[in-house]
UniProtKB/TrEMBL annotation:
One of its GO terms (molecular function) is NAD binding. This is Glyoxylate reductase/hydroxypyruvate reductase. Coiled coil: none annotated. The keyword Oxidoreductase applies. Signal peptide: none annotated. GO terms for cellular component: cytosol.
Amino acid sequence: MALRRLQKIAVTPLNITGGLTSNIQREMSTLPRVYVTRQIPPEGLKILRKSGQVQFELWDSDDIPVPRKELLQKVKGVDGLLCTLTEKIDAELLDAAGPNLKVLSTMSVGFDHLSLDELKKRGGWGTWRTLWLCGYELANSTVGILGLGRIGVAIAERLAPFKVRKFIYTDVAPRPELASAINAEYVSFDELAKQSDFLAVCCALTPETKEICNKNLFSKMKKTSIFINTSRGGVVNQEDLYEALSTGQIAGAGLDVTVPEPLPTNHPLFTLKNCVILPHIASASYTTRDAMSSLAANNLLLGLRGQPMIKELKL
Ligand SMILES: O=C(O)C(=O)CO
């Protein structure tokens, strides 16, 4: 299989001796996987370890280079490869590594052991493929809304032209006045999970909704369904979401909100190909932010004058 997403190649003019004495080193986590092809001097290993950014495995010998057969096995699916000048990085090796490989770093100033043509070939988008970056269609789908308020209705109005077959929603009680505007059917929480092809969370974060989206919800969803959260990160149990996405329990997630915000770039959710994360920007248009600031200012002035506010949170 061809490598499609090679992003960086680094050459390193290091000349340090020394090393670790243990056999294969393995740090298990959900972080990007790196293979280190040689017992490199401890400073480099310390940097990798301390970074908290990667899990790595090491061929722990300074005397003999990793046998080619072993190397071809070990590089399968890695995100990064740290090699030395004794490893030939050619088409066979890059194919064995596969499409996850993003960075190749060599502990050498010379780069004659790297097949530059093969590396270049794998640096761009690659060729168009029939199922490349395919997703699921809104047409004929069932869209579920968890918490139907003005935002849920506005989302449904925007999705309807894509020929959604059916809108369903759940809330503490049916909300017929809002639901009628989008022809949405009230269902139970379980039915919402079971039927939704796209499930959009639009509820407020309250003690009742905290982590309401957890393994109980995800385990009832279809394997082809997409989970969307634009409300608050706290309504989701992120460990359960990670589990559901990484095991294929659900097909994908789009998150505008997370805990914390912004989500640290080494968070396990960022390692998933089926999770798109934004830094809370769903309302980030000049018009919307102007409207939000005007509303807040007008509410304040009305309140100070003792008049009814345009939007008042009933306590
Ligand atoms: O207004 C809010 O509460 C927001 O989350 C803005 O995106």
